[in-house]
Records
---
Amino acid sequence: MPSDNAPSASPRLGLPDLPAADVAHVDVLAASADALVVNLFEGVTSPGGATGAVDAALGGAISRLLAGGDVTGKLGEVTVLYPTAGVSAPRVLITGLGRPDAFGPEAARRASAAAALRAAELGAARLATVVHGAGAGGLAPSDAAQATLEGALLASYRFGGWRAPSAGPARRLEQITLVEHDAARLPQLVEGARAAHAVGRGVAFARDLVNLPPDHATPDYLGRQAQALAERTGLRVAVHDRAWAEARGMGAFLAVAEGSSREPRFIELGHREERKDLPLVVLVGKGVTFDSGGLSLKQKDGMIPMKSDMAGAAAVLGAMLAVAELDLNVRVVALCPCVENMPDGAAFRPSDVLVAGTGLSVEVLSTDAEGRLALADALGYARSFAPAAVIDIATLTGASVVALGEGVAASLFATDPTLRARLETAADATGERVWPMPLFEEYRAAIESQIADLKNSGGAKGGVGTAAAFLQAFTAYPWAHVDMAGMALANGQKSRPYLPAGATGYGVRLLVEFLRDWA
Ligand code: BES
Ligand code: MN
Ligand code: ZN
């Protein structure tokens, strides 16, 4: 019986709400908002464009701050002015864009996020902002609009959790308006804003799922969220149970579930599946709702972040939300094997031999190498769709974090150079970094078993590559693998102000950008 102080009901079940967004054809000086954001490149001595217009209306106040060195235009710098006349908005925020030679969509995103955070702190509910980078920055207006709005939306995300409303950050943006005086640009800005809003919702959805603790975000919960998502968007959905997986001989996926009292779920979503003329992309996301390590139990510190071990599945679900909202002209299937990895009397053991759905047998060396087992059966099942490309995304190995660092980049493996290049392009556009890794044959040799086709661990060395080689054995199509271990959670670093502490939603923007380009 849930008592009053027990966290019984899950908070905010359903799709997350974002600040509203729009594009207004208005002069910056006349923009009606609680705060107006303009910008400045580092090294500029006399501001131009919209910032120049505000400077003139304020009698050269910005120029004087620049001359005095109080404002520099460094990326992350936000200066607040309180105009008494000349500008409709009661506050003007000048956000730094950094050096022009280092400028791109990521700088626009960060500059916009820094300003949005500051505006929210000051209690602003309605924010008006110029589009960063569409003028001197040289970005296409739609890309600049997307980056500007995305930065502000992603920075505005908060996970409510169970804290009393008074304990949480009370101040939150309600409305973000992109202001533009040039009517000819409006259609592109609207297009960029629409993309940002869809992607922002996908990211918020993914973040919510990852932030939700593992006693709530169970495999069944993820299945119900997928169902709700499909009801809202019209995606095809099927949430398969244990019996379905048994009928397909998915012994690798099912082994992971054996030590948990929570039933596994295998989520399947589809977008435009009837369009057989379009080349099919299958997205696969690791959905381990908690990774204790199983009988190969993790150390206590290593276990703490493991509610985020379903971040790959969350990224895929968030991407599907955006794909559906944008109604992208792509044929996509999403597969998320969802399971909890726990130790108990029924748990699978080191030394067990499992048989996957493809017929490959696997000797278990470590029950903590569970992600590749769940993914093996999803990758094997993906063959039945005859895909043109399959991308899996997973918090798969601590070795990826050792190699590339925490919050720096995900490891990218691919059997197809075009697929790799397209993911790298998407990473450049979104700032969701990937770094190429090799599929050397030695990694395959390291997971050879004496008694089965494969073993599930290649030992301590080259762990990111041996895990990828394991997955590769279950593929039979152009394939890419994104090991996003270390990317799922952020600690609220200042350098990326659009990543609040907690879940990052990493992968949503990468996958959506890839699919937009694929279309
Ligand atoms: N979920 C972990 C990987 C992980 C570690 C993600 C740290 C994020 C941060 C995965 O299931 C795991 O435990 N991998 C093992 C594999 C080993 C037993 C072969 C690892 O990386 O240690
Ligand atoms: Mn593990
Ligand atoms: Zn794991």
---
Amino acid sequence: MSPQLELDRRTLRLIAIAFALLAALSIHRLYFAGLPEATDALVLQGRTMGTSYEIRVAGDGLDESLRQRVLSETRDRLARVDGWMSNWNPESEISRFNAFRSTSDFPVSSETAEVVSFALELNAISGGAFDITVGPLVALWGFGSHARIDSPPSDEEIARLRRHTGAGALHVHRDPETGEAYLRKRDPEVEIDLSAIAKGFGVDQVAEGLEELGRRDFLVEIGGEIRTAGERPGGGPWRIAVERPQDEGRAIQEVIELQDRAMATSGDYRIFYLEGSRRISHTIDPRTGRPVEGGPASVTTLADSAMRADAWATALMVLGAEPGLALAEQNGIAALVLKRDAKGAILERPNALFPEAAGPPTRLPQRG
Ligand code: ADP
Ligand code: MG
């Protein structure tokens, strides 16, 4: 089994933003023809966590000095997130905790404790579907920061690793006097993989930085996880495209409007390989120790923070439309599950909290 198809990264793209910008620009030109051109948005791009990020700032004062301040604030914050939560950085808190084969307290930043706490909470809510201890199984199946595999693992190997997974083997607590945060393993072999939640948390951190700089209208995206604040250039909510899950090329499934909300997407169409006609995706069902099969093609979730949206999207990839959509709804999470029917056509399954499409699917514009 050789990886036949492995696309660089899964992302939900901000194509609609470019589209909205173009639309706003043409209206702007229409109304302000003859006047000197105003800048509509400050756009910054870079790379972090093995993927790309993009920031769009609207409003006043979009000058070079702001660009520099946003850039430096963003880089500082992303470097901190990397130092806390990256499995690729051997010096990060998480990597050092993973290497720490002991059941004693391990001091961590309050941010790492916050993310791990939420992950444990969602583990309980989702009946174990979301589980940050699946890392060894992710590696066993040839994903993550590890080498690809040549053949599927044996039942024995899966069973052996499953003995050291399960969020029940993790504990987070704070010293009531000092406020210091600690992680603790109940099983010294257990490891943490925050890949399904750290990008969302990174988005929230960058958004916080923009707020600190006094910005009210912006959009932050890291590898498809998004947070919006205020209005898009030209006014009105930000318009975001939900990508159609397909193996080649990019297309828009629908466009939705977001104001002061976060959105995340997980899917089986960016990071996977084919074994015959079976699609082996990087989402592991912790209850079986195997990649999810026959599940959603993608899940898009909306929440008040990108961290929550990100984690819930992964949880719903495991749970599927049933019981995932109802569970999300009970927890205030808007969700859209896209499924393939027998002929490969995409079916939409939203829960009641998911907004109506703001417009018909549009032609894919070039990314700005
Ligand atoms: P993406 O990285 O494409 O945005 P996700 O947010 O769904 O996708 O994260 C997938 C990653 O999360 C996997 O590569 C793996 O490291 C980890 N993971 C896989 N299955 C689970 C799970 N059931 N619970 C938590 N994390 C998972
Ligand atoms: Mg996720």
